[in-house]
Amino acid sequence: MQPFLAHPFDSDRLHEECGVFGVIGVTDAANFVALGLHALQHRGQEAGGIISHDAEQGFNSAHRFGYVRDNFTKQSLMETLPGSLAIGHVRYSTAGTKAATAIRDVQPFFGDFSMGGCAVAHNGNITNAMALRKELIERGSIFQSSSDSECIIHLMARSIQRNIPERMKDALRRVEGAFSVIAMTRTKLIGVRDPLGVRPLVLGKIGDEGYVLASETCALDIIGAEFLREIEPGEMVVISKGEVESSRPFGPSTGRFCIFEHVYFSRPDSIIGGRSVYETRRQIGVELARESPIEADLVCAVPDSGTPAAIGFAHESGIPFGMGIIRNQYMGRTFIEPTEQIRNMGVRLKLNVNRALVKGKRVILVDDSVVRGTTSRKIKDMILDAGAAEVHFRIASPPTAWPCFYGVDTPDRGKLLAAQMSVEEMREWIGVDSLAFVSLDGLYRAVGEARGRNAANPQYCDACFSGDYPVAPFDQLERGFRMKPNSETSGVEITGHAAE
Amino acid sequence: MQPFLAHPFDSDRLHEECGVFGVIGVTDAANFVALGLHALQHRGQEAGGIISHDAEQGFNSAHRFGYVRDNFTKQSLMETLPGSLAIGHVRYSTAGTKAATAIRDVQPFFGDFSMGGCAVAHNGNITNAMALRKELIERGSIFQSSSDSECIIHLMARSIQRNIPERMKDALRRVEGAFSVIAMTRTKLIGVRDPLGVRPLVLGKIGDEGYVLASETCALDIIGAEFLREIEPGEMVVISKGEVESSRPFGPSTGRFCIFEHVYFSRPDSIIGGRSVYETRRQIGVELARESPIEADLVCAVPDSGTPAAIGFAHESGIPFGMGIIRNQYMGRTFIEPTEQIRNMGVRLKLNVNRALVKGKRVILVDDSVVRGTTSRKIKDMILDAGAAEVHFRIASPPTAWPCFYGVDTPDRGKLLAAQMSVEEMREWIGVDSLAFVSLDGLYRAVGEARGRNAANPQYCDACFSGDYPVAPFDQLERGFRMKPNSETSGVEITGHAAE
Amino acid sequence: MQPFLAHPFDSDRLHEECGVFGVIGVTDAANFVALGLHALQHRGQEAGGIISHDAEQGFNSAHRFGYVRDNFTKQSLMETLPGSLAIGHVRYSTAGTKAATAIRDVQPFFGDFSMGGCAVAHNGNITNAMALRKELIERGSIFQSSSDSECIIHLMARSIQRNIPERMKDALRRVEGAFSVIAMTRTKLIGVRDPLGVRPLVLGKIGDEGYVLASETCALDIIGAEFLREIEPGEMVVISKGEVESSRPFGPSTGRFCIFEHVYFSRPDSIIGGRSVYETRRQIGVELARESPIEADLVCAVPDSGTPAAIGFAHESGIPFGMGIIRNQYMGRTFIEPTEQIRNMGVRLKLNVNRALVKGKRVILVDDSVVRGTTSRKIKDMILDAGAAEVHFRIASPPTAWPCFYGVDTPDRGKLLAAQMSVEEMREWIGVDSLAFVSLDGLYRAVGEARGRNAANPQYCDACFSGDYPVAPFDQLERGFRMKPNSETSGVEITGHAAE
Amino acid sequence: MQPFLAHPFDSDRLHEECGVFGVIGVTDAANFVALGLHALQHRGQEAGGIISHDAEQGFNSAHRFGYVRDNFTKQSLMETLPGSLAIGHVRYSTAGTKAATAIRDVQPFFGDFSMGGCAVAHNGNITNAMALRKELIERGSIFQSSSDSECIIHLMARSIQRNIPERMKDALRRVEGAFSVIAMTRTKLIGVRDPLGVRPLVLGKIGDEGYVLASETCALDIIGAEFLREIEPGEMVVISKGEVESSRPFGPSTGRFCIFEHVYFSRPDSIIGGRSVYETRRQIGVELARESPIEADLVCAVPDSGTPAAIGFAHESGIPFGMGIIRNQYMGRTFIEPTEQIRNMGVRLKLNVNRALVKGKRVILVDDSVVRGTTSRKIKDMILDAGAAEVHFRIASPPTAWPCFYGVDTPDRGKLLAAQMSVEEMREWIGVDSLAFVSLDGLYRAVGEARGRNAANPQYCDACFSGDYPVAPFDQLERGFRMKPNSETSGVEITGHAAE
Question: Which InterPro entries match (chains A, B, C, D) (predicted)?
Answer without folding.
Answer: GATase_2_dom, Ntn_hydrolases_N, PRTase-like, PRTase_dom, PurF, PurF_N
